[in-house]
Design brief:
Length: 131
């Protein structure tokens, strides 16, 4: 059983966690702009500069790093949006919290599905890499 002090500690812990989520939500637009500006800088650098193989590799490596970070961030935004739609369930009993966690788990699983090409086929992309 929790004694009074443990209850207060848990409430403080939960409150801090909710503050972190709210701060994350508040900063989403600025962070998304930052990722988009980074990618724009890289695109324009490629467009405006000649590069040897070594430089191409380095810029691709940086692209991959930024794209991976942006993907992780966007996945967190999706989970945040799911949470925001269902957050009333947090205070309405154990069963409802389980439904919230289940829904977030399903969303997380869908977000981690492999990407499906829209224009290029896998064969076309392999050919580009070989040329």
């Amino acid at each position: 059983m929790l004694n009074e002090m443990q209850v207060l500690d848990k409430i403080i812990e939960i409150s801090k966690a909710l503050d972190e989520i709210d701060n994350f939500d508040k900063n989403v637009p600025e962070k998304m702009i930052e990722y988009n500006y980074k990618l724009s800088d890289l695109y324009h650098y490629i467009e405006n500069n000649n590069m040897d193989s070594k430089k191409c590799y380095r810029i691709c490596r940086e692209f991959k790093k930024v794209l991976k970070a942006r993907r992780d961030f966007k996945n967190n935004i999706e989970l945040l949006n799911e949470y925001k739609q269902l957050k009333l369930k947090l205070n309405s009993g154990i069963e409802n919290r389980q439904m919230l966690l289940s829904s977030l788990g399903k969303r997380s699983k869908r977000l981690n599905q492999p990407y499906k090409n829209r224009i290029y086929t896998d064969e076309e992309l392999k050919k580009i890499m070989e040329d």
